[in-house]
Amino acid sequence: MSISKPNRSRTRAAKRLSQAAKVGLAPGALIHLGERKTEQPTITLIEYGDTELVEYCFTSIEEAKAHTARLPVLWLNVHGLHEPEVMAEIGRRFKLHPLVLEDILNTNQRPKIDDYGDYLFMVARFFEIDSENQQINSDQVSLILGNNFVLTFQERPSGRFDPVRERLRQDRGQIRKLGADYLAYSLLDAIVDRYFTILESIGERTEELEDMMLEHPKPGSLQAVHQLKRETLTLRRSIWPLREVINSLTRADDRFFRPETRPYLRDIYDHTVHAIESLEANRDVIGGMLDIYLSAVSNRVNQEVRALTVVAIIFMPATLISGIFGMNFKVMPPLDWPNGFLIALGLMAAVASTLSFIFWRRRWLE
User: Fold this and answer.
1) In CATH, what number is assigned to the domain containing residue 340?
2) Which is it for the CA torsion 79, 85, 89, 91, positive or negative?
3) pLDDT digits (tens, 9 = 90+) for 31-53
4) pLDDT digit string (tens) for 94-107?
5) DSSP for 263-287?
């Protein structure tokens, strides 16, 4: 995540304090490690079958406890992870391992996948571009896939899963017919597709910065290069592990993903490979920008030094001539000449003009 220096310092300090809160506690302790990004958790539930879909929104634990599912497949999504009571109730209802709940509440996880027998636990990251300062922010997304349910946990509402919700509501494609595994694929596909938008933005900024550095490098260019390097490094730390997650899903047994869903997983894997190739290409260009900047600055310094050298050489003969005529000798024939002063000035001008013509022919004055 690329942020300004003061914000990075506050973020690092917050992470140290969050990690310190876990010291000495038993494994599986439900403590939220991360920033509080919502006022209160919001739980949305979508139940659906081939011909029917029902949506619910819960704002309290009591409402969620009183609900009983009646349709074949359900998708439970939680926005806001700072209330352990909500997570504890969800863990009880779906028989989740305490370590799974602990990993969900720790929002600094790297993308990974864990098999707990009755369900799969996956972690990925969403990336967003701040429209004000063109910086990249990231949020953790936790996904649990069971035989007939999908659970997703987000730090805040992002709207990135809204297209999947609309496809469910309008019954477009096969999303209602292929069960929970296809729903999990659709969510993973939405996460991966977002990377291409981020990579396209980074690519455009990289091209603009490269053109600017080639034409007229500025002192702030170096800071922009380092910012792009941090952003690509953050993306790399998320995309590479996510590729391994998708690869593991394509090679896993048929407990969670049916054979008809596996071609779609292989398509996501191809997308992650494409995203990695684009990212590495941008990293190579950004890595070469430092050499471009140093070469441009060095070339500009050389041009300025050459200009100063040319000016010094042009006026050096005039300095020599005036120095000779300024010597304190009693007998100097040119001093007695009636036109001696004009001759000296003419000699200075002739030498300066000759040197200027030579430098111009050699293109040293451009």
Assistant:
1) 1.20.58.340
2) positive
3) 777 777 777 888 889 998 888 88
4) 889 989 998 888 88
5) HHHHHHHHHHHHHHHHHHHHHHHHH
